[in-house]
Structures are given as structure tokens and as C-alpha cells.
Amino acid sequence: MQESLRGADFLIDAKEKQATAKQAFVFLASLTSKRPMKSDRKRVSAGLRVLIADKEEKLSMTILSTQELKKIYGAGENEVHALDGVNFQVEKGEFVAVVGTSGSGKSTLLHMLGGLDRPTSGSVTVDGKEIFTLKDEELTIFRRRKIGFVFQNYNLVPVLNVYENILLPVQLDGGSPDQTYINEIIDTLGLASKLANLPNNLSGGQQQRVAIARALASKPAIILADEPTGNLDSKTSQDVLSLLKVTGQKFSQTIVMITHNEAIAQMADRVIRIEDGRIVTKEAV
């Protein structure tokens, strides 16, 4: 009977929650010459409930997903498929690196994931919301609240000091910062002594730490990092990436990082490789 129950488990998983206790009971009968008893029916029903709950929990852990995502530029002979049917998922708390050469489509993918550009077709779902069903203004608000960005060029506001730059997303949304949380971010990233400085008085590594703090400030669902070490030397790159990973773990953040650097990518939990607008491999590190 144990083997039969394992077979029923397989059926339930394959049907993606569409199986019923009755179907599982019939399946048991097909796998054993022994007629299943009423107690077996109860066991299958209980097992089904557990499996469905487990499946729902796994689904709820998916914080970011794409489905048949396409982006086409130009038309006719000049048509370029920057993204050509991209499908992937990121679970809550994961640190995922998307690796590709120049022109592979990785930056276009990041723009789609962050709602900075609209796809030709397909969908992007962030924290349970299909973002391209939103109007432009709604998408802007959603992006401000749910997505943190870390750019290669830092994109700090030059006339605001470090502290003001960190708080900017929260203040733009009309909210009040969680001061305890903000202070913890500042301490973790070693910025306490730099809060009054303007960006042009900071090194590249320090500016990128400010950008990471800013991305974390609004407690987003995901952080998207676009070549975050592209303007940094190798030692500073390692330091910044280590801090990005530590803060992601400490504050339970999901991070998707775009990079062409293989060594940097190995610091992630998982590496996704993209070529010619298509995902070619998905590797656990």
C-alpha cells in the first residue's frame, strides 16, 4: 500500500492540484490487487490535503515570474528580437544572477522585470501582480513601492546628501520611514559617518552602497541590480557584492542581478544564462 500511496502522490503532483480524493482512490485501486479499505481512502484524502497545501506554499514563494516574454524592435528586415519567449521564476529570498554577453538581451530583460519598458507580448508578475495590466501611473506607483533598483551609474541625486538619497523612495511615496529599519541598513552598509555627504564627495564603492541602501529603504518585493559593479575595481566589486548579498539575507530580500562577469555571478544562489534573447541554462551555484 505504501507504494500505491507514492504513486498517488505522483498523480496529484502531475495534475497540479486538479486531482481529487476520489481520483486518487481509483488510482490506488488500479495499482494494487488488494481492494483499498476505507482507512486507505482517509489516508489518501489526508495526503491530498497536505500535498495541495505544500503546492500552494511553493506557489506563494514565487515572488517574480515571466511567461513567454518577448520584446521586438523594428520591423521587417530590421526586426530585432531582443527577448524571444523568456520564461523563468524567482522565489522569495533568492539571489539570482542573469549572465549574458553584450547584446544578449539581459538589460532588456531587467527593464521588463522592473516595468521600465513594456514588452511586445508576454507577462511579468511581481508579488502576485501582473504588472503590465497596470496603467502607466499605476505602474509607476507599483514600481516605487515594490521594486528597488541598483544601477551601474548609481543614479544618486547630486544635490541631496546620503541620508536624503536613501529616504527618497519612501518620501516620494508620501510615507514615513521606518527609522529603526533605516538605521539598521545604514549601519550594515557602513554609511553612518557619511550621511551628510553629497554624492560627489564619495568614492564609487560608497556611492553604490548608498544606492543599495536606497533600494532597500522602501522594503520592496524585489531588488533589481543592473551591472552594479560595472564601474568599480575588482576589490571594491567584491566588497559591494558581499554587502549586497549580506543585506539581502539579513533583510529577507529577493535580488535579481544582471552581469556579464562570471566571477561576480558565482556569488548568487542561482545563475541564469541568456543568449540571443532566450534563456539557455539555469544553474544552481
Written account of the structure:
This protein is globular. The chain has a 6-stranded mixed beta sheet, sandwiched between helices. The chain has a 4-stranded antiparallel beta sheet with strand order 2-1-4-5. The chain contains 10 helices and 10 strands. The protein has helices at residues 2-14, 21-31, 38-61, 106-113, 136-146, 162-172, 179-188, 204-217, 234-250, 262-265; strands at residues 62-73, 80-91, 95-99, 121-126, 129-130, 147-150, 222-226, 254-259, 270-275, 278-284. Helices cover 43% and strands 23% of the residues. It folds into 2 domains: 2-60; 62-284, P-loop containing nucleotide triphosphate hydrolases (Rossmann fold, 3-Layer(aba) Sandwich), CATH 3.40.50.300. The model is unreliable at 1-33 (pLDDT under 50). The relative contact order is 0.14. By secondary structure, the chain is α/β, with parallel strands linked by helices. A hairpin with a 6-residue loop joins strand 1 and strand 2 (80-91).
CATH class category label of the largest domain: Alpha Beta
Reading the helices and strands in chain order gives HHHEEEHEEHEHHHEHEHEE
Percent of residues in helices: 40-55%
**What is the beta-strand fraction?**
15-25%
> The CATH topology of the largest domain, please?
Rossmann fold
How does CATH name the architecture of the largest domain? 3-Layer(aba) Sandwich
Radius of gyration: 23 Å
Tally of structural domains: 2
- Tally the helices: what do you get? 10
Ranges where pLDDT stays below 50 over 5 or more residues in a row are 1-33
Distance between the ends: 39 Å
Structural class by sheet pairing and helices: alpha/beta
Tell me the number of strands: 10
Record the strand order, biggest sheet.
6-7-8-3-9-10
Name of the CATH superfamily of the largest domain? P-loop containing nucleotide triphosphate hydrolases
Mean pLDDT, as a whole number? 83
Major sheet size, sense and barrel closure: 6 strands, mixed
